[in-house]
């Protein structure tokens, strides 16, 4: 048993290359919303120049995309007043077009459009060598002509999220990789925002400069929680159109719903309740860990499609952990096999690569410690275009965040279009 564990840690060793710490900024919620994010454009942060690079590189020269995004913003109208004021403040401070700053707030929603979606109406035996009995088949739901340009939106977040009980002390660890294309540029935009009220931390969140929604968050405290969001694609024909309709109808954006949850909820139960019932603008996963508990909600805009609960036997998962990447593996979503982010198409999906390590550790009598989870995040076929990593343990008040060395990732920065073609 010792030997097995030693061998396992040997293969996992050496993965942590040069990494960077995540810059931290205090976002004072007592300031007017227009003023809150000004701290980000102070000389020396480098953030303003990087957001300008993003705008210039991917939008200025692509009128199809830019016009579709601006048309969507115009048709949608203003965001919730507080968010709209934050957007105005960021646009004024950076000099970026307000419609661009507003459009970027729909990042998570728009990019659910990218992958062909599952045809669950006709599950059948696989005849193409993929070998998934009864696998859900893929088909492509085209976008309405008017919004086709949105399909050119830079491919954004893929992710891996694991919630595990460390049997050594019973506490629960939450491990997350945030994967983005244009890794080098995006990694420059990552920061931790410590959101304060009355000079005291109310919550903290890993953010991307220019985007007001939360991406990874934590509310500290005896019954606090950590919150991670992962991209989830529509699970039925017509899902793309529904998402567009929600954006056009002005539904609150997912990232705002999540930040409001961190603000309103001091407890795990409150957060899980809110994220179970609040309307979303698009499909998404909510990965929520607390003190000795955890759950993963596969959200549809109007409700929960599937729940994984730590401590129970979940589909293909023992009670010690639950995990998700970006695909409904519990519904046999065949798209998981075509996910190129782990380095190759039809290779080992990130989820399976992570499970092999977790399962082998348990089988060898090992414990799912923070270190083991950190090594798992960095293991071959799990680490992808990763721009941010977190190991969080609410019970131990641990917020361990870092940015891997871009040079250590399985492939260098690349554009969205080649990958869309590959999928
Ligand atoms: C941000 O960058 C733009 C473009 O270079 C510049 O016009 C603007 O003044 C900058 N804002 C700040 C606060 O430095
Ligand atoms: C998927 O479902 C749609 C709607 O039911 C159907 O028209 C289409 O033929 C199906 N496509 C495949 C590849 O099964
Ligand atoms: C795992 O934790 C248990 C306590 O639950 C302890 O007895 C055991 O030694 C640990 N295993 C390893 C490999 O550290
Ligand atoms: C991991 O273990 C679970 C059962 O505990 C099993 O269902 C699953 O297939 C295993 N996955 C891998 C990749 O080993
Ligand atoms: C296919 O996916 C749908 C949800 O998208 C699910 O309800 C159904 O059970 C899945 N079918 C199979 C064979 O996994
Ligand atoms: C925290 O992160 C660092 C990398 O910055 C890593 O080396 C360390 O093992 C982590 N600690 C825990 C408890 O996960």
TrEMBL record:
GO terms for molecular function: N-acylsphingosine amidohydrolase activity. Keywords: Signal. Residues 1-17 form the signal peptide. Its EC number is 3.5.1.23. It comes from the Eukaryota. It is an enzyme of class 3 (hydrolase). This is ceramidase.
């Amino acid at each position: 048993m010792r030997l097995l564990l030693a061998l396992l840690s040997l293969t996992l060793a050496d993965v942590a290359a040069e990494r960077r710490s995540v810059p931290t900024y205090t976002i004072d919620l007592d300031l007017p919303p227009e003023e809150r994010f000004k701290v980000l454009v102070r000389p020396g942060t480098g953030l303003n120049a990087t957001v300008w690079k993003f705008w210039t590189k991917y939008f200025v020269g692509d009128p199809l995309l830019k016009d579709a995004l601006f048309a969507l913003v115009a048709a949608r109208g203003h965001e919730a007043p507080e968010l709209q004021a934050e957007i105005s403040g960021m646009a004024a401070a950076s000099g970026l077009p307000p419609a661009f700053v507003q459009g970027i707030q729909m990042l998570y929603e728009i990019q659910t459009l990218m992958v062909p979606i599952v045809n669950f109406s006709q599950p059948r035996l696989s005849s193409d060598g993929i070998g998934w009995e009864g696998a859900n088949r893929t088909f492509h739901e085209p976008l309405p002509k008017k919004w086709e340009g949105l399909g050119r939106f830079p491919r954004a977040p893929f992710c891996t999220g694991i919630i595990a009980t460390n049997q050594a002390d019973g506490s629960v660890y939450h491990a997350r990789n945030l994967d983005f294309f244009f890794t080098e540029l995006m990694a420059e935009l990552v920061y931790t925002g410590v959101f304060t009220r009355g000079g005291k931390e109310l919550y903290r969140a890993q953010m991307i400069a220019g985007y007001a929604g939360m991406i990874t968050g934590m509310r500290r405290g005896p019954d606090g929680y950590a919150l991670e969001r992962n991209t989830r694609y529509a699970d039925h024909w017509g899902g793309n159109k529904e998402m567009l309709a929600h954006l056009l109808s002005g539904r609150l954006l997912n990232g705002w719903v999540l930040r409001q949850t961190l603000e309103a909820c001091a407890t795990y139960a409150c957060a899980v309740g809110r994220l179970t019932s609040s309307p979303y603008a698009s499909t998404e996963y909510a990965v929520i860990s607390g003190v000795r508990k955890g759950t993963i909600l596969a959200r549809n805009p109007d409700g929960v499609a599937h729940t994984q609960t730590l401590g129970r036997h979940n589909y293909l998962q023992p009670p010690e952990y639950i995990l998700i990447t970006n695909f409904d593996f519990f519904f046999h979503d065949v798209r998981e096999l075509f996910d190129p982010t782990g380095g190759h198409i039809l290779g080992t999906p990130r989820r399976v690569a992570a499970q092999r390590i977790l399962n082998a550790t348990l089988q060898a009598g090992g414990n799912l410690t923070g270190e083991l989870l950190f090594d798992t995040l960095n293991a071959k076929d799990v680490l992808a275009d990763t721009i941010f990593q977190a190991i969080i343990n609410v019970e131990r008040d641990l917020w361990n965040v870092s940015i891997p060395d871009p040079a250590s990732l399985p492939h260098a920065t690349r554009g969205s279009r080649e990958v869309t073609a590959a999928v």
